[in-house]
Amino acid sequence: MKKICLFFIIFAFSFQLFAEESTVETYHPHLKAGISLIIVGAAVTAGGIAGFHIASDKEFDKYKKMKDYDNAFEAVTQGEKESEYLNRAKNYRKKANTYRSLEIAAGVIGGELFLTGIILAAIKEKKTEKDVTLTNISAAPSRDGFYASVGFEF
Fold it and tell me: Domain residues of the chain, as ranges?
């Protein structure tokens, strides 16, 4: 419940940042970087959670299959040592737990990237009046080559 409330607070805050109107002309200097992070964050979250969840389920299914008494009995009767069989089963469970942890990490990292992208995209700055503009360019030939002149306004 806390995550849902936090999401709505962040959403409302970011919406308010975009919705502010003022007479001063502003722009979003980090808009491209913010949108890029939003896309990457969504991809990491969705891909990481889905991919690691599938991998975790596959490894856990192997563990559950090995934990079945009939499968264990069959492996031992075919000559596999009980300790080796149990170690293989433990390895499947460890892999499943590792994938589950990576699933959570992908969700957290992707969420952080997504949130950072929203914040970066929402940053506004005032447009400065002191832009450098090119006023004139001139060139004059001479005996040794030419002279060039460039004029700027600050």
Answer: 25-129
Determine contact, residues 66/89, Cβ cutoff 8 Å. Answer: yes
Q: Note the pTM of the prediction, 2 decimals.
A: 0.63
pLDDT tens, residue by residue, 30-74: 899 999 999 999 999 999 999 999 999 999 999 999 888 888 888
Selection from 8, 15, 11, 37 nearest residue 112 by Cα: 37
Give me 102's structure tokens. 């990576």
Beta-strand (E) ranges in the chain? Answer: 26-27, 125-126, 133-142, 145-153
Whether 117 contacts 41, CB under 8 Å? yes
3-state helix, strand, coil in the chain (%, to 5): 70, 15, 15
